[in-house]
Write a structure and sequence with these properties.
This protein has helices at residues 18-26, 45-56, 74-81, 100-107, 109-120, 129-132, 139-147, 155-159, 185-196, 209-212, 214-224, and strands spanning 3-7, 30-32, 62-67, 85-89, 172-177, 201-203. The protein is of the alpha/beta class and 225 residues long.
Length: 225
């Protein structure tokens, strides 16, 4: 049995993982999916990592999974917990010293979104979350997710340089969503190669894969163990 530590993305809460968590628990694992303290405007990336580490406590045999903006927190947690595996799911890949607020510009994400939007009729980067984020999530479930949204990440976290000097010495996998309208697939194929030196594993889903394809995502996570 492993302990899966599931870290949510920006504007989200731990609930976003509840379907994946149920799949993993059915397989005999313990799952921890805490809410990050994003409502605190002074909370930093280090504070986010502290909240997750505190929630894990003394548990061992840890698999850390980060989604979207959770990619800035997941490596910090994986290093501190000496995790056996780190999985980045449609996640922002930070570089040492890079503040989240600079990431889009540094990586060329904004240009990639505009280029993909020109090809798909403006669906990528669309302001309507039902189009840009939850297009493959059942409507009632998407509406429930939207009802839980909050102000996260904090301004302090967006300004804080990513504190690690190098990527943690933890085996790392990257899951790419082929129908992602937040981060274009070709963009992540390039960035995963440049910053992690890995070829992503791909799943046919939009950005919110934990809600749209929970069984498939859980099975992929399990395959890594």
């Amino acid at each position: 049995m492993s302990t899966y530590v599931l870290i949510h993305g920006g504007g989200d809460v731990g609930w976003s993982w509840h379907l994946v968590a149920a799949e993993l628990r059915d397989r005999g694992h313990e799952v921890i999916a805490p809410d990050l303290p994003g409502d605190d405007d002074s909370a930093t990336l280090t504070d986010y990592a502290d909240a997750v580490v505190d929630a894990v406590g003394e548990r061992t045999d840890v698999v850390v999974v980060g989604h979207s903006f959770g990619g800035f927190t997941a490596p910090l947690v994986a290093e501190r917990l000496q995790a056996g595996l780190l999985v980045m799911v449609a996640a922002m890949i930070p570089a040492p010293g890079e503040a989240p607020g600079d990431w889009n510009r540094n990586t060329g994400c904004d240009e990639a979104v505009r280029a993909q939007a020109a090809r798909d009729g403006g669906r990528t980067g669309h302001a309507d979350p039902h189009v840009g984020f939850y297009h493959d999530v059942p409507r009632a479930l998407a509406d429930e997710a939207l009802s839980k949204e909050r102000a996260h990440p904090s301004p302090a976290a967006m300004r804080e340089p990513w504190p690690l000097s190098a990527w943690p010495a933890v085996p790392t996998r990257f899951v790419l969503c082929r129908e992602d309208r937040c981060f274009p697939p070709d963009f992540f194929r390039r960035l995963a190669a440049e910053r992690l030196g890995v070829v992503p594993d791909e799943i046919t889903a939009g950005h919110c894969v934990a809600l749209s394809r929970p069984a498939e995502l859980a099975a992929l996570l399990e395959s890594y163990r």
